[in-house]
Each structure stands twice: as C-alpha cells, then as structure tokens.
Amino acid sequence: MRRPRPGEPLPRAVYRILSDGRFHSGTALAQQCGVSRGAVWKAVSRLRALGVSVDAVANRGYRLPAASELLDAEHIGRLLPRSLSARLREGRCCWSTGSTNADLLRQLAPAPGRFDFLTAEYQSAGRGRRARRWFAPPGGALCLSIGWSFATLPADIAALSLAIGVCALRALAELGCSGAALKWPNDLVVGTGKLGGILIELRAEAGGPAHVVVGIGLNVALGEPVLRLVRATGTSAADLCALHSRGSERNRLAAALIGACVSGLEQFERVGLRPFLAEWRVADALAGRPVLVNADGGAVAGHARGIDVNGALCVQTREGLRRFITGEVSVRVTS
Question: CATH for 286-333, among 2.40.40.20, 2.30.30.100, 3.40.50.2300, 1.10.10.60?
C-alpha cells in the first residue's frame, strides 16, 4: 500500500497512487492517505486544475489515462554515471514551486566542477524567454534546472542556449528519440509544434566566477486540456509520446539531460560554441525558410541562412545579410 510520505502534499500523494494507471476507489484513496473522501475529491479537483487528466468512473474510482512515473531525485541519481553522480552537490525533485531556475539562482553557487539539479512537477511561475508562460502539468512534462559555475565567464556566453540545445538533442538520441530539431535561439521543435525550450539565467561579477542556471522544459505527455491551453495562445505543441521514444520515462530523461548538459557546459567553458556548430546546423529548423524577425529596431523579413561562428542568426534580406544575436529577439516562419 502506497502511504503518504511525511509532509507530502495531498495532491502529490493522490497522484503518486494513481500513477500506476489503475483504478483506485475514493474510499481506498482516503484510507491510504489518511483523509476523508471529500479531501480526496478536492485533491483530484486540484490535479485537474493543474492540467492533469483524471478519469472518474462510478463504482470503479479514479485513474490516470496512462501510467506516469513521478520524478525522484534518488532514482535520477542512480541513473547518472558514477563519475558524474560523485560531482553532484544537491539534487531535488519537488512537487511545486514558483520557478526551478529562480530557486537555484537564490542558492550559493556550486564549486567549479560540481553541479545541482532541481525538478518540479508544477511551476506556478514557469516561463520561457520574453516572460512567456510555460504550461507544464504534473506528469506531463519535465521541468529541469541545472546549477553550474564557470570559473571565468566564457566569451561566447550569449550563445550558451545554442550549445544546450545540442546537448538536449544528444540526450534524446541516447534514449533513441529522433525527429526533433532546433529553432533559433532556444526552442526544440517537431514539425511546427514546440517540444521544449531552454532558459539560461546568469549571476556574475566582472572578471570573476559566474553562477549559471540552465533551465530546460520538455513536453512528455501533455494531454488534451493542456493542448487546448497552448492552442489558445496561438501556438502549437508537440510531446515525446508522439515520437514513441524512451524519453517518456521521465527519470531516465532527466538523467540523460543532466549528463549531456554537464558535459556540454565543461566543453563550452573550454572552447566555446565551436564544437557544437556542426550539430546545430544539421538540426536547424529555420535553415532556408522565409522568416520574420522581430527585434528592437523593428521587424525584418528575409530567408534564414543558419548561424555564424558566434551563434548569431543570419538572415538574407533584400538589403543584404543581417545578423541577429540572442536576447529580446523573436523569430517566426512565414509562408
């Protein structure tokens, strides 16, 4: 019998019991959690409000449409190579928080060569670039942040999100997942649907060490309620379940991403963007396509011509080749 853990939020306890994909009656859930059936009903309502699909059938109880493992820091740690897990300072998986990136940035930076990781099943203030809302229901996505320290700030730091995008594809390939591409500067896409995003946040002093937090959000199995929310924003989404990969095993996915990103951060610190360029260009979802770039100076139309050695987006316009660096820039494909 799966009993609640000390201090475990009731929605998480109910979700954990339902994560086997089987029916559990309200009475059985109440007994296992040590609460009333009314409290169970409220917990289920809370899960649905967060975007979790929970089936309810008379005389059978509640269930999730499919089995879904909860993220577990100890499990993730066991899946890391021993040489990497020995360098882990702290790894945590929480039920909910405002932002995993913000949480790690508030902590003291790990020593160079060591790292932290934090996941959350739900982020109340999850966001992407330009403060866009990130929809991620419990069990339906992976919200992962990795804390790292650079001894000195790399010269190519503005292009770090491009390197991390390559690292994410390396991790997916390790799990047998193909079909994802990279959209400059920080999105993973499948066709026209967004699979995930990268958010880099930095705290540094001039000439000194830099505390960087790498945030990665990947859609695993969103479910129709969240897909409707995403469509309402005028965008489309994709998830790993549609790619039929082991990436839907979220603890294994988290471990693969952590391993690829830590190795990539070390590589980036030594030599910058150069060793990532070839892989990025192969995965470039914009190459050769008509695009509209919105930047501080206004909108620019043209055809995407890949990235240069510094990670800038190159766009061929009627006036000539234009370069755009990461920052407050957005790009969309035009017809």
Answer: 2.30.30.100
Q: Phi first, then psi: give them for residue 82, nearest 5 degrees.
A: -60, -40
Q: Nearest 5°: phi and psi at 192? A: -95, 0
Residue with tokens 């139309």: 301
Out of 12, 16, 129, 250, pick the active-site residue. 129
* CATH class of the domain whose range is 73-281: alpha beta
Q: Is 332 a catalytic residue?
A: yes
Of 130, 132, 274, 332, the catalytic one is 332
pTM, entire model? 0.90
Residue 91 to residue 80: CA distance in whole angstroms: 11
**Per the residue annotation, which of 16, 194, 250, 305 is the catalytic one?**
194
**What's the half-sphere exposure (Cβ side, CA atoms, 13 Å) at 306?**
10
**Residues 6 or more apart from 273 whose CB is under 8 A from it?**
156, 159, 162, 163, 309, 310, 311
Q: Which fold has domain 10-63?
A: Arc Repressor Mutant, subunit A (1.10.10)
Q: How far apart are CA 46 and CA 11, in angstroms?
A: 7
Report mean pLDDT in 10-residue bins for the chain, 335 residues. Answer: 67 92 95 94 93 91 88 96 95 94 95 96 69 71 96 90 98 92 96 93 80 95 75 84 73 97 96 96 96 88 95 95 85 87
194 is catalytic: yes
Predicted confidence (pLDDT) per residue in 272-330, tens digit: 999 999 999 999 999 999 999 998 878 999 999 999 999 999 999 999 999 998 777 88
| Residue 97, CA distances (Å) to 42, 105, 160, 216 in order | 20, 14, 25, 15
Is residue 130 among the annotated active site residues? no
| Helix (H/G/I), strand (E/B), else coil: 46 | helix
Q: Is the peptide bond before 185 cis (omega within 30 degrees of 0)?
A: yes
- Domain borders along the chain are 10-63, 73-281, 286-333
